[in-house]
């Protein structure tokens, strides 16, 4: 037995050919840099460049996958005195501090390199 026809609630008609934009490699890299900057909101970056956020998220995913081929990526190092810590008269032990996206890893002198590599790999995978 045939079912009675249902009322159409919404109907979209798309006419004409869709517009496909082509970005040069330099333009794409510039947009990706802007979208991957700390604190950037991808949907706002996409809107500024007249593209969908989904398209930009696809570019970011591809860029991260390509960067995954290289186990170490460049991370800028900032050396500045910490005014909140009082400098004592006794010499302090040297400590390496690695800050990545809000996480801070303090490496004491004599730390095992293999252990440090595992910690940094885990930190990288959580980003």
Q: Short description, anyone?
A:
The chain has 127 residues and is mostly helical.
Q: How is this structure best described in words?
A:
- By secondary structure, the protein is mainly alpha-helical.
- It contains 4 helices and 2 strands; from the N terminus they run H-H-H-E-E-H.
- The model has no long low-confidence stretch (mean pLDDT 77).
Task: Give descriptors for this structure.
127 residues; two-stranded antiparallel ribbon; 4 helices; 8% strand
Helical/strand content category: mainly alpha
Low-confidence stretches: none
Q: How many DSSP H or I helices? A: 4
Give the end-to-end Cα distance, rounded to a whole number of Å. Answer: 56 Å
Layout of secondary structure:
Layout: H1 25-36, H2 42-48, H3 53-67, E1 96-100, E2 103-107, H4 113-126
Antiparallel strand pairs: 1-2
């Amino acid at each position: 037995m045939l079912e009675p026809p249902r009322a159409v609630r919404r109907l979209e008609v798309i006419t004409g050919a869709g517009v496909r934009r082509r970005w040069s490699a330099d333009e794409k890299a510039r947009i990706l840099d802007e979208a991957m900057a700390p604190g950037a909101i991808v949907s706002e970056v996409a809107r500024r460049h007249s593209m969908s956020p989904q398209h930009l998220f696809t570019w970011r995913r591809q860029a991260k996958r390509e960067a995954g081929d290289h186990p170490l990526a460049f991370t800028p190092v900032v050396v500045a005195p910490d005014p909140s810590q009082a400098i004592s008269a006794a010499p302090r032990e040297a400590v390496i501090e690695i800050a990545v996206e809000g996480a801070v890893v303090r490496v004491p002198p004599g730390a095992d390199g293999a252990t440090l590599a595992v910690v940094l790999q885990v930190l990288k995978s959580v980003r």
